[in-house]
Amino acid sequence: MISQILKSVILVSLVSSVISYILFKNTSKSFVEWFAICTIIQFLFFYFYNNVITFFTKLKLEKENIEAIKLINNNTILINCESCKKINNVKIDLSRDNEFNCTHCDTQNILNIEYTTIAKTKIYE
User: Fold this and answer.
1) Quick check: 105 pLDDT over 80?
2) What's the CA gap between 76 and 91, in Å, rounded?
3) Where do the structural domains in the chain lie, given as residue ranges?
4) For the chain, what is the radius of gyration of the CA atoms?
5) What is the rounded CA–CA span in Å between residue 40 and residue 16?
6) Cα 105 from Cα 86, distance rounded (Å)
7) In the beta sheet, which residues pair with residue 76?
8) Alpha-carbon distance 85 to 26, whole Å?
9) Burial code of 25-63, b = ≥16 C-beta within 10 A, e = fewer?
10) Does pLDDT of 76 surpass 90?
């Protein structure tokens, strides 16, 4: 971490020095004034650049999280129609009530989701 900060400060100083030298030779301001101006401009630029990158990264992560939650909530199951007992491929969304029409007899079915637990048994050898 400290080495990265040191590299960044050295790079900023080097760029500021080169630009300040060029501007110092072509204008009436001193090298130190140009160096200070160039350094401040670079720090401001990178500050705003990092804020923009952070903002867009957060937006992208939030969008990906929302899509992942939607995928987690949507499942497809094979279930029998209560009327004709034939198998239907039904998409379930755990965030709402689920209904489907049978593809064979066109009867409207309501899906009742029930959670139960089962104790895991140990098989003795």
Assistant:
1) yes
2) 4
3) 2-71, 75-111
4) 32
5) 9
6) 9
7) 91
8) 89
9) eeeeeeeeebbeebbeebeeeeeeeeeeeeeeeeeeeee
10) no
Residue 106: what residue type?
D
Q: Which of 52, 72, 53 is nearest to 64 (CA)?
A: 72
- Sequence-distant (≥ 6) Cβ neighbours of residue 111 within 8 angstroms: 79, 90, 92, 98, 99, 100
Q: Which residues contact 30 (CB under 8 A, 6 or more apart)?
A: 24
DSSP lists the bridge partners of residue 98 as 111
Mean pLDDT of all residues in 12-34? 90
Which of 40, 43, 44, 36 shows the shortest CA–CA distance to 20? 36
